[in-house]
Amino acid sequence: MAVSLQFRLVFLLLFCTICFGEERDIYLVMVEGDPPVAFLQDGSGYLQSGQKLDPVMSDRSSEILKARHAKYLEESHDQLLQSTLEEGAYNKLYSFNHIVNGFAVHTTPTQANKLKKAPGVKLIEKDRGTKMMTNHTPKLLGLPQRVWHGQRGVTNAGEGIVIGFVDTGINPFHPSFAYHPSYGNNTRFPGVCQEGPMFPRNSCNGKIISARFFSAGAQAMGNLNASIDILSPYDAVGHGRIAVYKAIYPTMGTSTDVLAAMDQAIKDGVDILTLSIGPDEPSNKNFTMLSMFDIFMLFARKAGVLVVQAAGNRGPGPYTTASYSPWAVGVAACHTDRTYPGSFVLGNGQKFDGIGLTAPSFFGLLQSKLVLAKDAILANGKFPRTQEFIEECQHPEALDPVIVQQSIVICMFSSGFSNGSSSMPAIVNTARTLGFVGFVFIANPAYGDYLTDSYPFPIPGIMIPKVSDAQVILDYYEKQTERNGKGVVTAYRALASIGEGRVASYNEKAPIVSRFSSRGPNFIDVKKTPIDLLKPDILAPGHDIWAAWSPMSVKTPILSGYNFGLVSGTSMAAPHIAGIAALIKQRYPSWSPSMIASAMATTATTYDNRGEPIMAQGQEIYTLHRSTPFDHGAGLVNPTRAIDPGLVFTSGFDDYMSFLCSLPNSDQKMIKTALGEPCTHHAPSDLNAPSVTISALTGSQLVRRTVKNVANMVEMYVCGVVPPTGVAVEVNPPWFTIVPQGTQELEVILNVTQVEDSFSHGEIVLTGTLGHIVRIPLSVLPVSVS
C-alpha cells in the first residue's frame, strides 16, 4: 500500500528528532554572491544607489540574465545545503534571490552551527517570529480639500503608484476592494493573483492588482489551524491601487515568510513597501540594524523602494521602538479629533461619559433596574468562586436569570481582563443569553483605570474605564440596594440607562500620541545603547481608525461578522504614511525614497488642532505630558505641505554604510560581510537625515547637513534655532540663497552650556522667502561642558 506524503513527512520529522535529539527551528542564511537586483537593466554592472529596476519595462536581455542568475543562486543554495548538512536533517523553505542572496532553512541548532561554518556563508540568524503592530482621517489631514484636488481628484490621486502590503492578506469580497471601472489594471506591474481557499482566480482587479501568500515558515513551525490559517491570500484577521503579500497567520507569523514576501514584492516592482508588522523582539546581535529584517529593508531602499514600517506598540516607555534603521520610515500613532461618546445615567441624574458603539437602552428614555453581577450569582456552588464567574460576567450559567433579566448589569474589570483570559465578547454573550437590557463594564478599584478601544455592541453596552467614575456608580448602587444581615440583596432600587453611543463628535484635542505607540530614544543593541538617530520618524493617525475588516476576525471576536472596525495600532498609522508617500511619488516620479521621506518629515507639525504643542499619553493612564520627538518623531504628517517641501535631505546606500560603520563598537568586518561593501567613516550624527540627534554631547560638536532645493524658483532661507535646554546651537551660514536643484551645506555647531540628566529637545527652522518652512528636530543629551 502506498504511504501518504503527509505520513512520510511526519515520520521523517519524528525520525530526525529522535536521531538528533533536538527540536528544529527556522534559520535565515545570507551567502556570498550578488543577487539579480545588483544588475543594471542592460545587464552590465551594478545599480547606482537609489536606482530602481522596473521588471517589465527593462531590456529583455537583462530580464533573461536576471532570471538565469536567480535560478543559479537557487541551485547554489541547494548545493550548499546538500554538501554541508546530513540528508533528512533539514528542509529548505525559501531561496531569497532578488534583493538578497540567501535562503531560509528548517533544521536543528547543531546543523545550523555546521552551516554557520560553511564556506560562503556570511550570516545566519534564528527566526525571531513576527507579529502585527495593530473615513475621517483624510479630512483631518487635509487631503480632500487640497492634496487630492491638486492631483486630478480623489479617483486619480496616486494613479500608477503601487503600494505593497506585507501583512495578513486581504478579503477580496469586501466592498472597499470590489471592482470599479475607474480603476484600470496597471499594465506595468507583473503581479500574480494566487488563488486558493476563499480566494478565487478573479479576486484581483484594478484595486487589488496582485495577491500572493507565503506560508512555508508558518507550516514548518507546525500547529496551523486549517479553519483559520487559510492558505491563500484571504485575510482571516482583518489587519490588512495595492499589491498584497500575505505572510502572517492567526496562529503565528515567522520572519521567514515576511522576508520571502518582501523579496517578491521588490522583484514585482512595488514603489512603496508597507510593513505593519515587525519582529517579536529586537535582534540579539550587537547591532539591531544588522538583523535580516533590517538588511532586507536596506536592500529594498537600495532598489529604490520606500519602506514604511510601524514603529511598534510597546509604548509608552522609552527605548521601545521596533523601527531602528534610517532607511525605513518608522511611524508612530496618534488619536484623532473624532470620538464616539457614550453616556451612562444613574437614577439620581448623575451622568458619566463612557465608550462603546451602542444603541441606547429603551431609546435612552426609560431607566432599568441596575444589578451588580456578584449580587446575582447563583448559590448552587456548581462553579468556581473566581472573579471571571462572580464579577466579570464571563459565564451565563453563574448568574440567576430571574435577577438579571430585563436589568442593566454591572460587570467589572478584574483578574481575567488583567491577564487577558477574559473578553468583551463573553460579556456580550452572557448579556444576550440571559436577556439583559444592557451592561456597564466598569473599572475595578483593585486594578485601577483601564484602557480600551471603541467596539460595536449588538446590545446596549458601555465601558466606564476610570476608577473614580466606577466608585461613584458603586456608591450609588449600594445606597439604593437593600440587604439582609448576611449581605444578600433583598431589594434592587438602583436605576440606570445607557445613552446613544453611535454618533460621532469631532471636538477632541488632536493629535495626542497614543499610549501604546512605541517611543525613542533609538538604540543599537540588546543593552539599549542610544544612537545618534531619531526614531520614530513621523506621526500619523493610528487610534480608533475605521478600517476595512475581515468578517472572520479570528483574532478579534467582537468584530466577527463586521466589514469595518475601529482599530488601533501603529499598523493603522503606517498605511497613512504609505498613501501620502504614493501621492508624492506620483507628483515627483524621479524622487528617491529619502527625498520623499524628507519631504514628509520637514513639513510635519508639532502643534495640535488648537494651536498648542502636541501632547502624549504616558505611563499614568488618562494623564498627558508634552510630546517630544521621541514620541512623535518630526511631528504629525502634513500632506499639503509635504507635496511642496522646498528643501529636502538626500541619502543613499553609501551614506547608510558610513552611518553603520561609524556607530560605537561597530563590527566593521561583519558589516562588510553582510552588505558587501567596505567601511567608510563619518560621525553617525553626520548622516544626512532631516533631524539631529546627539546621544552624548561632550563640550562642542560640529554636525553637517546638506539640503537640496526641489522648488522651481530661486529662494532665500533664514536659519532660526530653538535650542535644547543646556545646549547652545549655531547654524552656518545663518542665511543662504539657493537655486532650483541646487544644494547648500549647513554646519550645525552644538555647545554644552549645562549638563542635563536626560535628553532635551529643540529645533532648527529654515524659513524661505517663498513661504517654505523646513523644520529639523534637535534631540540632545548634554553630558559634559568640556
Summarize the structure.
This protein is of the alpha/beta class. The strands form nine sheets. It has a seven-stranded parallel beta sheet with strand order 7-8-6-9-11-12-23, with helices on both faces. It has a seven-stranded mixed beta sheet with strand order 14-13-21-15-16-17-18, with helices on both faces. The protein is globular.
SS field, number of helical segments: 20
Ends distance: 83 Å
Mean pLDDT: 85
Find the structural class using helix and strand composition: alpha/beta
Provide an overview of this structure:
There is one protein chain. Mean pLDDT is 85; it is low at 1-20 and 40-53. The protein has 786 residues and is of the alpha/beta class. It is built from 20 helices and 36 strands.
Topology readout:
Blueprint: H1 5-20, E1 25-31, H2 60-84, E2 90-97, E3 101-107, H3 109-116, E4 121-126, E5 130-132, H4 137-140, H5 143-147, H6 153-156, E6 163-167, E7 208-213, H7 216-221, E8 242-246, H8 255-268, E9 272-275, E10 277-279, H9 292-302, E11 306-310, E12 328-334, E13 341-346, E14 351-355, E15 368-372, H10 387-390, H11 401-404, E16 407-412, H12 415-419, H13 424-434, E17 438-442, E18 461-464, H14 467-480, E19 481-483, E20 489-492, E21 495-498, E22 512-513, E23 538-541, E24 545-548, E25 564-567, H15 570-587, H16 593-602, E26 615-617, E27 624-626, H17 629-632, H18 639-642, E28 647-649, H19 653-662, H20 668-675, E29 692-698, E30 700-709, E31 715-722, E32 727-732, E33 735-738, E34 743-752, E35 760-768, E36 773-784
Parallel strand pairs: 6-8, 6-9, 7-8, 9-11, 11-12, 12-23, 15-16, 16-17, 17-18, 22-26, 29-36
Antiparallel strand pairs: 1-3, 1-4, 2-3, 5-10, 13-14, 13-21, 15-21, 19-20, 24-25, 26-27, 28-30, 30-34, 31-33, 31-35, 32-34, 35-36
Helix pairs in contact: 8-9
